[in-house]
Design goal:
By secondary structure, the chain is mostly beta strands. The protein has strands at residues 3-5, 10-12, 15-16, 20-23, 26-28, 31-38, 43-45, 48-56, 59-61, 64-65, 68-71, 76-83, 85-88, 93-100.
């Protein structure tokens, strides 16, 4: 079930969510989830890690890692991005280093 951190909420500490989490408030800490959405009012100081998707419309000071990252025009990001797919809307404010992840190979490389 998706979780929402509301606009006037201020949290300190790391969050782990099984499904999806939307942040509209202030968080000092890291987030791990399947999907993370930082709304226009969201403000995160910490690292974001999601299996599927991260969408940023607010402010993030920290590293962002996901298969897909979408940065909206209202976003302000300072940190490193690790992704397979990256979409950046015109107008986003970025101070980043970006690295494209390759798909992991699950085959064994045993030598006989």
């Amino acid at each position: 079930m998706p979780s929402v951190i509301l606009r006037d909420t201020k949290l300190q500490g790391n969050l782990t969510q099984k499904d999806s989490i939307t942040i509209d408030g202030l968080l000092l800490g890291d987030i791990k989830s399947q999907e993370i959405i930082i709304s226009e009012n969201g403000n995160i100081t910490g690292n974001l890690t999601a299996e599927l998707n991260i969408e940023v419309g607010g402010q993030v000071n920290g590293d962002i890692s996901s298969d897909r990252i979408h940065i909206n025009k209202t976003a302000r990001i300072k940190g490193k991005l690790f992704h397979r797919s990256l979409v950046v809307d015109e107008g986003a404010q970025l101070e980043i280093a970006s690295t494209t992840k390759k798909k992991l190979n699950n085959k064994s490389n045993n030598v006989l």
